[in-house]
Amino acid sequence: MASCGHSWSWPVTPEVRALGLGVAALRYASLGYAVLPLEPGGKKPHGMLGDTGGVHLASRDPRVVRAWWSAHPAANIGVPTGLVNQLVVVDLDTKGGYDGPGNFERLRAERGWALPADLAIARTPGDGWHSWFRLPPQASWCPEKPAITAGVDIKGDGGYIAVPPSGRMVHLADSESSRSEEIPVAYEWVTGCPCSPPAAPGWLPGWMAEKRAASPDVPVRQRGTGDDDDLTDIAWRCVHARDDDLKTQKDKQLIPHGKRNEVLYRAGCILMLKHRNEGAAWSRLVAINDTMTAGPLGKRELNVLFRSAAGWSWGRIAELNQVWTASLEATRSLGL
């Protein structure tokens, strides 16, 4: 049990039998984190969320969380990183022969970076580490930085992590008998608690702004090339930009030249899923168009684009409502 008194294991109760990992998902939501269901034993967004949306459908509404996990109690728990949860995670990996923890410690020693005393760290089933840090309230963006150095990722806007007590199936091989098997291994908190992760140290924003390490053994995906993930990340940043940044046009060149329509369409979809209100989504999209593109779309063209995004979004919302309604009814029938 952490010093705060939070325990991340539960006795078997009727609620645990009904919700499974959902009891932990509700704990994260009560701490202010938006969560999403992941595939049982995996890290991909759960199939009940559909083929699109994924991390952007995360919710901290306990009614939604109960609905998801009453339908699928074995679903792992995902927590989005970046501005949506004011959270940045340093992910240290040991898979594929990488020594993420060792590389990070060597880099810290070289640069003289100190860590807070009150760290919140979870161990992953692959024997890696997730170190949680709170973003400052004034943060306007938190870039995702895969492979910033070998075995080290920074999880930010548009990303997410699986969290304790979620589990993964880990492959074990016996070299002597040539037998192999898979066993379930859980994510676990080894120090601290997500109720009070430390503030991001002063060196972390500067590190996030650096280019990823150029090394032949580190896969580097070029940003700003217009691939689908990149455009969705940009749309996510536009949607969550601070009002002050919109007013000052701080990110006037954020949307790449030639990708304006695609990014604005994705931003419209995210806004609709977030607000479920066309007026609020439209107002924000107009502000993004006016302040975050070098050449804004005309209002008529923007409206055509928004009508298309709204049509897709209402369809997704209807599908999700069917799942949630059925799951809520099941939850009520159990008296939860």
Give a structural overview.
The chain has 336 residues and is α+β, with helices and mostly antiparallel strands. The protein folds into two domains: 196 residues, no CATH class; 93 residues, no CATH class. It is built from ten helices and eleven strands. The strands form three sheets. The protein has a six-stranded antiparallel β-sheet. It has a three-stranded antiparallel β-sheet with strand order 1-2-8, covered by helices on one side. Strands 9-10 form a two-stranded antiparallel ribbon. Helix 6 crosses helix 8 and helix 8 runs antiparallel to helix 9. The chain starts with 13 loop residues before the first helix and ends with a helix. About 5% of the residues have low confidence.
Could you give a quick summary of the protein structure above?
With 336 residues, the protein is an alpha+beta fold. It has helices spanning 14-19, 22-30, 62-71, 100-111, 203-209, 228-239, 243-248, 260-275, 278-291, 299-333, and strands spanning 36-38, 76-80, 87-92, 120-123, 129-134, 145-149, 152-155, 160-162, 167-174, 179-186, 188-191.
Overview features:
six-stranded antiparallel β-sheet, alpha+beta, 336 residues
Gross morphology: globular
Integer average pLDDT: 81
**SSE string:** HHEHEEHEEEEEEEEHHHHHH
Largest sheet: 6 strands, antiparallel
- Low-pLDDT runs: 212-227
**How many β-strand runs?**
11
- Number of DSSP helices? 10
Strand content: 15-25%
Into how many domains do the coordinates divide? 2
Distance between the first and last residues' Cα: 26 Å
Helix percent reads 25-40%
